[in-house]
Amino acid sequence: MYNLVSPKVVKQLMMRHGVAFNKGLGQNFLIDRNILEKIVEAADIKTHDLVLEIGAGIGTLTRELAGRAELVVSVEIDKRLFPILDETLSDCPNVRLVHGDILKLDIENLIRENFANRPFKIVANLPYYITTPVLMTFLEKGLWFEVMVVMVQKEVARRLTASPGTEDYGLLSVAVQYYTCPTIVATASAKVFMPPPKVDSAIVMLKKRVAPPVKLKEPEVFFRVVRAAFGQRRKTLLNALAALETGGGDKQRMEHILRKCNIDPWIRGELLSLQQFADIANALVDCNISF
Q1: Is 286's pLDDT higher than 60?
Q2: Which domains does the chain have, with CATH numbers?
Q3: What pLDDT, in 10s, does the model give residues 75-109?
Q4: Rounded to two decimals, what is the model's pTM?
Q5: Phi–psi pair at 158, nearest 5 degrees
Q6: pLDDT reading at 247 higher than 60
Q7: What's the CA angle centered on 30, arms 24 and 35, to 5 degrees?
Q8: Which residues contact 35 (CB under 8 A, 6 or more apart)?
Q9: Pairing between strand 50-54 and 71-76?
């Protein structure tokens, strides 16, 4: 019906409906067939799959998903695009469009109403400015998604998949790797978008873990430790954790706990693995230390 990866077709659609690209909403529409297919293939969409798409745009990715899935629920924040979507998705009866901001919607209710608590997949060409909050919202809520395939800024992709001791390793790396197994599927230059952004992108697949990779006595303590360790990267682990402890902290006691975990108190957080963070958190729980 429509070749939505054609710059000419995209321009004609936008002009006919009197719609201009909104930079504030991070609107960069995909115009590369190869990258489009890589996104869909990474999600491994089957005929029985339920898909949540974040950001329908003009329906480029939506159409590809609809051609394979049982149902696609696509959330789009820009109401101006709905007349275009009504046109480009007119032959896709298994698509449900939802107007709203994904960060403000009642996500649990949205999923319950559309998917009846069945497992689903998340696929999105995410605007760069909402990437981290969107990822963390879905991960922290413990929703029943199986896999998340997202197009993100290349720099963010490196952070999601970073290993301890690397420049990109940080709080986001630990949080995402606690909940999922992230892998970079492919990279994409700015030229595959219209209009082109200022940076390159990457497709990342985040496969949800059946169980966390580490055993925690109190997960909230684990994440407090991680946040403290990366809060001021120049601080040693000892100083970062002692400053976080309620009442100002006891550095001598904290040093003893770290050494008991076989961790050098003077290293920095970016060198610790998930297991080491878990060891510290569990030891703090055992010692009844509050943050």
Answers
A1: yes
A2: 7-208 (3.40.50.150), 219-286 (1.10.8.100)
A3: 999 999 999 999 999 999 999 999 999 999 999 99
A4: 0.93
A5: -65, -35
A6: no
A7: 140
A8: 151, 186, 188, 192, 203
A9: parallel
What's the whole-number mean pLDDT along residues 136-145?
89
- What DSSP letter does each residue of the chain carry, written as one string? ---TT-HHHHHHHHHHTT----GGGT--EE--HHHHHHHHHHHT--TT-EEEEE--TTSHHHHHHHTTSSEEEEEES-GGGHHHHHHHTTT-TTEEEEES-TTTS-HHHHHHHHHTT--EEEEEE--GGGHHHHHHHHHHTT--EEEEEEEEEHHHHHHHHPPTTSTT-SHHHHHHHHHEEEEEEEEE-GGGEES--SS-EEEEEEEEPSS-SS--S-HHHHHHHHHHHHHSTTS-HHHHHHHHSGGG--HHHHHHHHHHTT--TTS-GGG--HHHHHHHHHHHHHTT---
Burial zone of 258 (CB within 10 Å; 0-12 exposed, 13-18 middle, 19+ buried): buried
Torsion angle of the four alpha carbons 105, 107, 111, 114, in this order, in degrees rounded to the nearest 10: 0
